[in-house]
# Entry
Amino acid sequence: WLVRPTTDKQALLEGVDRYSPDSSASRFVDGLIETVARFDKERGNNFPVVVILGSLTADGSAIRDRDVKQLFERLASRAITVHAILAGASTVATGNNVADASRIALAATKQTGGRYESIAAATRLGTLLPEIGGQIAQSHARQSAQYRVTFDRPAGKTGQVGNIGLSARGGVTVKLSLDGRLP
# Structure
């Protein structure tokens, strides 16, 4: 950890200042799996956002199919949005989980409507992180006025549901989302 989850802007900026590539194997996939598992345990009534930063050096994660499958199931069930940044030279050999980490990060961002960036130098973070922060702020603004409507069948009823309608007063925009994420 460079910075534990926080809303303290100064702590986040200090964490970014401490980021630098090193020669040890990263644990990008393990970190993403652990973070999403924590959100799954909390079960709050929210739409979590993960911004994960890793390197394109050899990934030392123990990438197991069942863990990756569970990761994507949790992303879908909790409506988590993932923004992933991988930093480093893009010419790294792919025989050491680097390709797997990149594919998992790309798939996670596509599934969740997040952003994937592969950057060559950490200096890009100074402009990239505010861009991602702006996306998160826009999403929050849309979701802060969002209502969750749940339709359940009466006990013991089966068969076709039929038409479900929704009307809204003037000036209100209605958008359907099956998982809570709004574009």
